[in-house]
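Sanity check

After download, print the first record. It should look like this:
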Amino acid sequence: MPSDDTPPVLLAEGLTKRYGRRAALTDCDLTVPRGRVVGLVGPNGAGKSTLLQLACGLIAPTSGTLRVLGAPPAADAAHLARVGFVAQDTPVYPTFTVAEHLRMGARLNPGWDQRLAERRIAQVGLHPGQRAGGLSGGQRAQLALTVAAAKRPELLILDEPAAALDPLARDGFLASLMEFVAELDASAVLSSHLLGDVARVCDHLIVLAGSRVRLTGAVADLLAAHRRVLAPRGGLARLPAGVELVGVRPDGRYDRAVVRADRPLAEPSWTVEPVDLKELVLAYLTRAAGAPAGGVPTPAREALR
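Expected structure tokens:
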């Protein structure tokens, strides 16, 4: 368990990244404690990959600051060794065998754990002599994850690694991820469009939309602070003090809403229920997109399944 004075995994203050006139991230403030598995969600173009590339030191911010494990991203070789990265499409070298990937990892990473790598490769059914170009998508993802984890990082960063996998392969990948997190006592940041995956493995959430952070915090705390409300039409026009309307849509003679409240809700004409993660995220994305009541923008529906 991290001590109180342990630097957070990610600490961003006013973090901004622009490409010409286009803002990829705007004035983002984030604090992510260690020991968390973080789900990073949002529609295409929200800034998810930009945030992860900044965290890996692949690009530099336009303004603001970002510290990863208490230091600037990729500050030196020692800091690079503390972060494992699996990019989109889980890139591997098609002409390299599985064993050659492990040998490359050993040469490039001073903390390389060959016994861990070989054990994990055997557990997922990969043969050392197989060439990566002949592997299935799920096998390539397992190989890329093993190479990232065998350097024994303190933080694993994964940029939509399972988006193209079939359900069985995705299930196996997520199981491997959680086993690595437990074995290494590591933190992880997982960017994903698949809210079912996020709900399964993540205990911290970051919602990005339109280049800005719209919601962040521990998943349990966020779910406890929000409620689904069913009220007579027009019954949400005046809200009690301490209640924030996140999103609302008509549902027959009623309005169905997601609200954030700092106290228990006891309005006699309301039906109050717990909210699930998907409904919570979509409510914030809908608000960020400025969608009219009763509609979730098509990109939001398609991007988060």
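If your output differs, re-run the checksum step. Summary of this record's structure: The CA atoms of residues 76 and 293 lie 49 Å apart.
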